[in-house]
Amino acid sequence: MRLLRSLAYAIYLYAMLALIGLAFLPAVLITGRRAAAKASHLWADVGVWGARRICGMRHQVRGMENVPKSGPILIACKHQAMWETLFFMTIFKEPAIVLKKELLSMPIYGWYARTMEMISVDREDGPSAIKDLARQAQAALDKRRPIIIFPEGTRRAPGALPDYKPGIALLYRQLGVPCVPAALNSGLCWPAHGFLKSPGLITVEFLPPVAPGLDRKSFMNELVTRIEAATQRLEDEARSGTKVPQNRLNAVNA
User: Fold this and answer.
1) CA-to-CA distance for 198 and 158, rounded, in angstroms?
2) pLDDT by residue (tens digit) across 72-111?
3) How far is CA 69 from CA 29, 61, 210, in A?
4) CA-CA distances (angstroms) from residue 213 to 161, 171, 237?
């Protein structure tokens, strides 16, 4: 059953990408990022909806009070599955998500990511990649767009040793804005590098912001400690089936 559900969802997700991408293409050619954003948000919505309806992946969100309602925002999130790249598009308007440059070469997805001015990083460029990351992030911040970065640079399976890259520290220091850490346990339902998906409740938790002004070492220690501790707690909750008091939740996906 898991295999059939996973296969059905994969077909559904990429069929919807093709359908929505091609349907919005004329509008994108005329209006650019605005139409691309509408298409991308729609695909993310149907992607998260399909994950729930087809694979049984419900989700809940905690800590939205820690996300600034206005002003510049930098979110550093644990990355365990493709699921969260869809999720962030459902709750933030036109986020600038940091992604691998090679994704821009993908048909349809890459076209829209490029048009939406996502922040692309070529990790083989060394120091110049870091400078380009800062330049693109500042441009997004100037447009009042929320910046989403996965500080480990790639998906990590639950329980894997943390491997945080220097890009997040650079953005924190150069942008001079609060950094909101975020933890999740999506990898228990949607494997980092596997195909079979499992039903369950995915929890995303936004943690209190790290105020600007810390030195690099202090910031990285604070960030890694907060995210890893919260991630472990969320994974333990999911495995044990521990119920969370309703007053601690900001939103629950039915």
Assistant:
1) 14
2) 899 999 999 999 999 999 999 999 999 999 999 999 999 9
3) 32, 16, 16
4) 27, 12, 33
Which residues does residue 204 pair with via DSSP β-bridges, in sequence order? 61, 184
State the Cα–Cα distance between residues 203 and 184, nearest whole angstrom.
Answer: 5
Domain layout of the chain by residue ranges: 57-252
Q: Which of 232, 237, 222, 240 is nearest to 78 (CA)?
A: 232
Spell out, as residue ranges, where the chain has pLDDT lower than 70. 242-254
User: Which residues does 124 contact at the CB level (< 8 Å), separation at least 6?
Assistant: none
* Bridge partners for 182 per DSSP: 77, 206
Q: Does domain 57-252 match CATH 1.10.238.10?
A: no
Cα–Cα distance between 107 and 222 in angstroms, integer?
A: 38
pTM over 0.85, yes/no: yes
